Amino acid sequence: MQRLELVHEWLAGLFPGRAYSVVPASADASFRRYFRAAFDDGLTRIVMDAPPGREDCRPFVHVAGLLHDAGVHAPEILAQDLERGLLLLTDLGSTTYLDALDDANADGLFRDAIDALVKWQLASRPDALPPYDEALLRRELDLFPDWYVARHLGTPLSASQQETLEHVQVLLLQNILAQPRVFVHRDYMPRNLMVCADNPGVLDFQDAVVGPVSYDTASLFRDAFVSWEEARVLDWAARYWEKARRAGLPVGADFGAFYRDMEWMGLQRHLKVLGIFARINYRDGKPKYLADTPRFVNYVRQVTARYAPLAPLARLFDELEKRAPQVGYT
After folding, report:
1. What would the mean pLDDT of 75-94 be, rounded to a whole number?
2. Are 164 and 312 in contact, with CB atoms under 8 Å apart?
3. ∠ Cα 174 180 185 (to 5°)
């Protein structure tokens, strides 16, 4: 039976005799798909289709409960068939932050996102989610040389280039693993935040972990699909840091140190995403994400230009892109 037929069969069993229509709601970079079921009385529900063997609904169910307990607006799970990979969810609407953001409303929308993030982090406890440990961080970093460099650029790293990359990775991991640990959504970005009455609605949280306190701010302010001027990012990061400090979160007394940690954490994420976007194209046949790889290359260049210990990575990118070395590297 095709997955869409299975969705219709399941809905017919949940709502016997009710007339409804089903249309795609969204799809993501994984094998999950989402459908919006609209009933004749105006009610709408979301069906998450997560094919068993490729996806597992259980983490989504677990993290949804943690988000609700934290007072964060996430979809409520109304019905579930874990064996067949189906969930029925409340509908948070169709307007994402990514759809809605502009210069006029960005401050207000990000203020709400920061408030929700602080709530989420305040609910942290060490035994509730998998750890964002060195093994996971390294697996993510390996995506960059394997998929972006070797597969996408077609130029596998030389021994000296691999040594350079490993040196920078060690610096990043030392910083990241030393940061205080909280709940981490792991993809807390405008595409996964919904504009709704209890703003924001939070989606795509099934990969949540316990990890570095700066991670979700790096995701939010250094987005995959929209970029902001540095002054604005600094202002939003400062707003988060001030609210987090007042709430008792472990962000430290020095904003400059927090911002550095956020940038170094972000660099790990940027390298990972470059690898993921290449993998999605070459392994999964989804080419649209490759169009945003220059954004992440630019993020990498911005961060490596600001911190002398990261300059070897800037020179490595020059070599990979066959560019002349840039002035200012040390």
Report:
1. 96
2. yes
3. 100
What is the C-alpha to C-alpha distance for residues 267 and 176, in angstroms, rounded to an integer? 10
**How many whole angstroms separate alpha carbon 71 and alpha carbon 312?**
43
Are 115 and 73 in contact by the 8 Å Cβ rule? The answer is no
Q: Residue 104 has what pLDDT?
A: 95
What is the fold, at CATH topology level, of the domain defined by 97-320? Aminoglycoside 3'-phosphotransferase; Chain: A, domain 2 (3.90.1200)
The pLDDT score that the predictor gives to residue 32 is 86
Model confidence over 28-74: pLDDT tens digits?
A: 656 889 999 999 888 999 999 999 988 899 999 999 999 999 999 99
**182: left (phi > 0), else alpha (psi -120 to 50), else beta?**
beta
Averaged over 106-125, what is the pLDDT?
97
**Cβ-count burial of 26 within 10 angstroms (0-12 exposed, 13-18 middle, 19+ buried)?**
middle
Single-letter residue type at 108: G
Q: Does domain 3-90 have CATH number 3.30.1300.10?
A: no
pLDDT for residue 322:
84
- How far apart (Å, rounded) are the C-alpha atoms in residues 139 and 159? 19
Residue-level pLDDT at 25 = 87
Tell me the chain's radius of gyration from C-alpha atoms. 21
Domain(s) of CATH 3.30.200.20: residues in the chain? 3-90
- Of the candidates 97, 99, 120, the one whose C-alpha atom is nearest the C-alpha of residue 108 is 97
Place of tokens 């996964």: 192
Q: What is the pLDDT of residues 277-308, one digit of tens each?
A: 999 999 989 898 899 999 999 999 999 999 99
Q: Distance (Å, rounded) from C-alpha 146 to C-alpha 56?
A: 26
Considering the chain, tell me which residue range(s) the CATH 3.90.1200.10 domain(s) occupy.
97-320
